[in-house]
Amino acid sequence: MVVLVALAITASLIGRLRQQKAIGLAAGRAVLQLAVVSLIITAALSHLVWSAVFALFMYSVAVFTSSRRIGAGRCWPWVAISMLVGLLPTLAVIFASRAVPFNGPSLVPVAGIIIGGTMTATTLAGRRVFAALREEHGSYEAGLSIGLTRAESISEVIRRRLPEALVPGQDQTRTVGLVTLPGAFIGVLLGGGSPVQAGAAQLLVLFGLLSAQTITVVVAHLFIRSGRLLPKDLITALQP
Q1: How far apart are CA 124 and CA 118, in angstroms?
Q2: Which helix H or strand E contains 60, and what residues bound it?
Q3: pTM beyond cutoff 0.85
Q4: What are the beta bridge partners of residue 176?
Q5: Is there a contact between 133 and 227 (Cβ–Cβ < 8 Å)?
Q6: Distance between CA atoms of 180 and 182, rounded to whole angstroms?
Q7: 180 bridge partner residues
Q8: Nearest to 51 by CA among 35, 36, 40
Q9: HSE toward the beta carbon, residue 212, CA cutoff 13 A
Q10: pLDDT for 192-225, tens place per residue?
Q11: How far apart are CA 33 and CA 88, in angstroms?
Q12: What is the number of other CB atoms lying within 10 angstroms of the CB of residue 66?
């Protein structure tokens, strides 16, 4: 692990990326955080209630992280709702169908993967569409000039950008088994499961991600076009 981090730092130094400190800090934080989390998970997995509390903690961190990444920290409630609307039906289907047992050891990893996926989709969508609204302000004003409402004008600018947030998840699903063998597949194999069981577990995770991420992006779009989920500078700039 030390050698791998050293390789990353060396590559940054040679390429003049100036990310040596950031890489070192990220690696250090990862070690400390996983050490603490490992201890917490040991206790959390023993009781469903504590597993649910830990899943809620992961969700809270994801909302905070995504809100900061898109520059809309004050709009975190709308980020939270967008992610929650994607999470709840997806997790409900997974556990209600009994594809995965509803217990602590299952709830934490499955919820963690889906939460992480919704966080990524929200961040990608927000960063891309907010950049588009800044770069294509003229298109927004043109929409207003022909009689479109504020919401309609915003949608005209950002609608074609939204699918970009789903590309990583779609690519991962398309290439699974051909380019990578993701964590769920390897985890089941290492846990003694058969290749068929591993494949089924991985498909469940991938399809769950597709569901949660797509719903999250759709809901985020509704909040963005209504002006509820916007960075401070865009709230001012996008006045009708």
Answers
A1: 10
A2: helix 48-69
A3: no
A4: 180
A5: no
A6: 6
A7: 176
A8: 40
A9: 31
A10: 777 787 788 888 889 999 999 999 999 999 999 9
A11: 26
A12: 27
